[in-house]
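Complex record, two chains
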Amino acid sequence: MTTIHIEKHSANPGTAPSEETQNVRQRLLKSAIKLFGEKGYAATSVNEIVSAAGVTKPNLYYYFTNKEGIYITILSEALTGYDEIFNRASQAQGSARQRLMEICIEVYQQFVRNIDTSRMIYSVYFGPHQSAPPFDFETFRMRHIQLLHDLILYGISIKEFRAGDPHIMTLAVLGQCHTAMELELCHSGPTLGQEGLTKVLELLFESFAINRTAITEE
Amino acid sequence: MTTIHIEKHSANPGTAPSEETQNVRQRLLKSAIKLFGEKGYAATSVNEIVSAAGVTKPNLYYYFTNKEGIYITILSEALTGYDEIFNRASQAQGSARQRLMEICIEVYQQFVRNIDTSRMIYSVYFGPHQSAPPFDFETFRMRHIQLLHDLILYGISIKEFRAGDPHIMTLAVLGQCHTAMELELCHSGPTLGQEGLTKVLELLFESFAINRTAITEE
């Protein structure tokens, strides 16, 4: 019965999704992201999601099976976006400093471009246990850390960076990325923005460098 | 009627609180911190708090008036602890670098010592709106930022630090504090610890310094 309702939305079943079906799916994702972020997973109902999206319930069941399905889809698609950045970064050319800068800026841009999803991820990760379905954030976090760590080790191996503690250097870089991102989630006060993130990373990379560059402004 | 229950717990009414009344108050705070952090403010009932504390309901009403009262007390006491650190820090002597390091380490220690409260604060701040009573986190955040900023300006004025952008330098320091603290809240992966925080700050301060110190380990 569910599919009968849905077929109405798909003008050409069996072919590429029409613009309208794409829109329905996107509208559902957008509503769910906002509601999960604002109210939490448990407090959000399927009715609220479909109503906010302006579509009928069977659409949600068709595209995502159930509330858990749309939740997992949101998180998986978000982390896939970051994984693509990590994949490109691990193939990229250039100095360790350039490559670290690029990956940090791209991660920051992805976070800001999808700020509602980012807010939802923080809400799920740091918020109260919401009897939300389990989701493996940790594999993703560890992949990010590992990539930064490998780039720092590479920088040390080619004598671009001095031989510091790669674990500390990695967490220092990660910290500046996270700070720039979190300041976007705060309710007031200064943010760093992309330009600020570039500057704090430049400060940090200067201390990694074997040869200090002259950036004193005096 | 409420007070009748309470007087039983106070062996010497009118004198300093006995050890038992102190314990009752502390037990209530501890249970509420855990429950608000795990379930959120709205989902936690007064019954659950008193039951977890092993005390009767009138005790909660006596010490905190209601659920809102215990919630506001927890947050106020936590932020008062940080305010004391900021007050001491603004009076302290020493180089800008030493003073920045001391304040960061003290804030980190306070955060870890009260890890359940810290978890609750993150849960409230980043978690879903929980129809929790409003609480002014922003004044506190701005005070922390202002203090770091003043110390950095001081460092620049005495030519201990080079003339960089004090806004960027401030957020870079703040970022490393926050990272060390947040890694304590994460569910897995590397943490920095106090020693790691000291090291990332040293990395950063090195790039602030007019004269780079020789800490290359090669």
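Note: DSSP finds ten helices and no strands in chain A.
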